[in-house]
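Quarterly update, task 2.4: adenosine monophosphate-bound model.
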Amino acid sequence: MSFKTLKLSTKLLHTLKKLGYTEPTEIQQKAIPLLLKGHDILATSQTGTGKTAGFVLPMLENLKEDTEVKQGDDRYKIKALILVPTRELALQVQTKTEEYGKAFSHKSVALYGGVKLGSQTTQIRSGANIAIATTGRLLDHIKNKTINLSEVEIVILDEADKMLEMGFIDDIRAILALLPKKIGDKKRQSIMFSATFPPIIMKLAKSFLENPKIVEIDKENLSTKQVAQVVHYVNVEQKMSLLSTLIRNNDWHQVLIFTNTKLQADKIVEHLNHEKIDARAIHGDKSQGQRIEALHAFKNKTVRVLVATDVAARGIDIINLPHVINFELPVKNEDYIHRIGRTGRAKQEGEALSLVCTEEVAQLKEIETLINKPLPTIETEGFTYTSNIQASSKKVSNKNSTDEEKKKALTLKKAKEFAQKMMGKPEMLPQNNSKKKKSGRQSPSNKRHF
Ligand code: AMP
């Protein structure tokens, strides 16, 4: 199928051609025609599937181009609002909006925390009609009256499950309550994209969307087909040295490594740099400037390895990123799909490797069930995997275990708890939001290790 069949305007088709987009992805084929007709949609789609263009292209077409210079309070009026969970995603979606919207007179602004409000206000005032925002910063602008949402015609919740998981439900509700249901006699268009649909998402969708069309992509596409996924079993204490050995021996460049805690991310960077492998970390303790700079250096290939937590990695969009490594499996199984979606993007080939220690074996099985296939394993000379911990843990659950064995297992449990404390807590939400959250990110304590 070509983009032409989707009934996009000639000027947009021209832009897409220039960008080298020859045919729409599955989510684009399904979502664009519905959105062009003005329907609300509830779409399930992961990052890497082309979902951004799926909602941005029809938004650009549906919004009226306003060439008049805005005066007075009108200067703060926004016509399309895209809510996203993180700063990085806000920037990424805005970059795409500008890229796709080159032939239009629309202007977009990214509103996210960690930077001063002033320059964002100037951008709003100088004619932006599309805002891509994280919820906390948007509420700051609302409070300061530096944005006016009374004429929002199109509202999009991108990665809704992530936003809720990060505790933004109250913010989202507060923002949605401010939006008009109709502008003149035209109904507001509401769009929701989410990778998963827990009951809380369905509840929000029910109140937010009006007669939505459901858009799904094939389950098979959940874990991108172009990504070769492999597992390397390894003893936990050997993970660091295995990591540097693999990168060096295979001469890998542009390697994105995922880890669950900020502290672990910093430790990996320290280890790799010590091994003369240039690496940087991006996580919630890094300033916005540092995060943007690290990402930029990684994109330009001046830095070989980027180590990221799941939260910070949202919005990393690098075409043809060849290697993704899970230093540890994610806290939430669904994040495995998000993580590997960083490679094999836009139909390019990629490789995703997971370093799995004994304590992660059970979770790996859950992930294999989620993606509907077993993952092949690889081995490396000099890294022999032994599974002592698993044997000890098994004994705890065995009814006939002796007191001595139970004691040993308890000590092991304590040692693990201590180690976990030392390694730091899993990455929480970025501090881009002055509002106190009622529900924070789910505690991963039942899953984590190290
Ligand atoms: P997304 O899932 O929106 O983050 O997009 C993933 C990547 O696919 C981005 O780098 C897009 O620029 C790219 N992309 C989106 N749609 C297409 C398409 N139809 N053809 C080629 N590349 C695309």
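Highlight for this quarter: Residues 21, 24-25, 28, 47-53, 317, 319, 345-346 surround adenosine monophosphate (CB under 6 Å).
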